[in-house]
């Protein structure tokens, strides 16, 4: 594609438990034809290895990304098969690269999705620390008034984290706890993961078919 017209979503993956959420969001974005700029924190690499048994390496990021996205939340490798075309418009930036494109407000993006967001990441963004590219890109997203979705994954939440989340909300971010719902008829872990991923994409106005939407129930007047 014409790179001058490229306008990706930044997906930041922090070290909180919940890497299947990130994988589902990434698959949803790529299936919708969206370009993606990916930032995986150092802590997230350790979590990914712990949760999936797969590494994520800078020198082999494309190969490792394909392996990661092919794995289902139920632990089955090769459950999903992404085409080369779907993966072709993913750009990876190392978390330590503060000179990367997403560190500047003049770099064109649609917004940023942090999935999952650890409490340390939430604090860093709320306080404007910019200690790595993930936090810096989030701060830039806020200052440029672009969409920022923060899928926090922690329980219980202490008072300090709640204050940080309120700060993010007041700054314009969408605070979206990774809280699965059960009305959509979930039968597998992947269904619960896809619900959360779908809600993240809803907040970003990206179309998807990851879960069955609530349509309401007809009352006595409607059924008469």
Description:
The protein has 224 residues and is α/β, with parallel strands linked by helices. It has one domain: Flavin prenyltransferase-like (Rossmann fold, 3-Layer(aba) Sandwich), CATH 3.40.50. It is 40% helix and 13% strand. The protein has helices at 19-31, 42-52, 61-70, 84-87, 119-127, 133-143, 159-170, 189-203, 220-223; strands spanning 9-13, 36-40, 90-94, 111-117, 147-152, 174-175. It has a six-stranded parallel beta sheet, with helices on both faces. Helix 1 (19-31) links the parallel strand 1 and strand 2 (36-40). Helix 5 (119-127) crosses helix 6 and helix 5 packs across helix 7. The N and C termini lie far apart (54 Å).
Mind telling me the C-alpha Rg? 17 Å
Helix amount = 25-40%
Give me the CATH fold name.
Rossmann fold
| CATH level 4 superfamily | Flavin prenyltransferase-like
Beta fraction of the residues?
A: 5-15%
Please count the helical segments: 9
Low-confidence stretches: none
Category from helices, strands and their pairing: alpha/beta
